[in-house]
Amino acid sequence: MKELNPNIDTPQNPEIPHQNCAQDFEIEHKQLKEEEQEHEEEELRRLLLPNVEELPDIPPSAVDANFTTFFAPDFMKPGHDQYVHRHANGLCVIGLAPTHVAFKDKGGITSVDFNVGKSDRSGIKVTGKRKKNAQLFESNTALCKVCTSDSSYIVRCCVKGSLLEVNDRLIKQPELLNTMAEREGYIAIMMPKPADWLKAKASLLSLDEYKKLRTEL
């Protein structure tokens, strides 16, 4: 029987071949990639297919989604309630709030006249990125006059800024004010300077504050 050479060490933990290490690494990498892909797919499903129980009963309107609404109740006169839809880019859409006194007259609003003050607001045409020809108006400047069968009411800017446009559709379609005053029935679009907006905002009400004030809503 051949004797073992005592000077030769017998390895207790033989090294794993390099090929096996590479295979194990590839398997582990593949598993991680599959898990990451599954996670991404699950996240995508969550975004595209939200939980039905979390959805609102009524989807938000374009106004609710893109604007923050403020209110100017009793602006200059009792019952002259107006809204200001403020966009993130600074634009302010001006219109009549649901509780404006004009809507309480029999038959609602029957006509709109932009020929107030010293000029016809519907004749103002603003052009270019610099808003050439835009006129700077004060918050109490008249935008138009809305008429009912019983009376007439002056609608004002509510904020100091440049008048970019008026909704001249109301001249031929005044009924838009009675049915869609917060959307297609808006009065005008203003662009106040940041400092002027902050000053105006301090005097306006939020939606919740407005609802508390006008409990009939």
From TrEMBL:
<protein>
    <recommendedName>
        <fullName>Protein Abitram</fullName>
    </recommendedName>
</protein>
<dbReference type="InterPro" id="IPR033753">
    <property type="entry name" value="GCV_H/Fam206"/>
</dbReference>
<dbReference type="Pfam" id="PF01597">
    <property type="entry name" value="GCV_H"/>
</dbReference>
<comment type="similarity">
    <text>Belongs to the ABITRAM family.</text>
</comment>
<dbReference type="InterPro" id="IPR039169">
    <property type="entry name" value="Abitram"/>
</dbReference>
<dbReference type="InterPro" id="IPR011053">
    <property type="entry name" value="Single_hybrid_motif"/>
</dbReference>
<dbReference type="GO" id="GO:0005634">
    <property type="term" value="C:nucleus"/>
</dbReference>
